[in-house]
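> run fold DUF4149 domain-containing protein
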Amino acid sequence: MVKDSERPIAAVLVLALAMLWIGVLAGVSFLATPAKFLAPSLTLPVALDVGRHTFAIFNKVEWLLAALLIVALSRRPRSGIAFVAGALATLFVVVEAAWLLPTLDQRVGLIIAGQLPPPSHLHNFYIGIEAAKLLLLVVVALMTALRIVEKRG
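> ok
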């Protein structure tokens, strides 16, 4: 088995990817998206349409980050907690892409068309998944940073 000290670049790459993903996730989901709904000149259908396109692109970026993170995590001796947290964050990306985003897109399409879809908790579920991904990525970053510091100290 390869020791952590023999693959320091893999650990640094894991940390960099986790931090990048944290920044993009926080910026898109928890900063830019809520901010657009504060603009009084932006109608709800337009804001929802912009959001739909934003999250479609963001999901593709997350697929890339998730794939790179899993590869980087598998290239170093596993910190079980970091690997599981990264795998769970990746699983959430899959759930969003395969089910949640298409379902939310249908609702947005109805609203843009002037219809009123029935009440749903899907948006809150999406926010919950985004928050969970953020926490999981913080775990990946912290566990990896701690291992890097341990190996250097």
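The helical segments are 8-36, 44-74, 80-112, 122-152.
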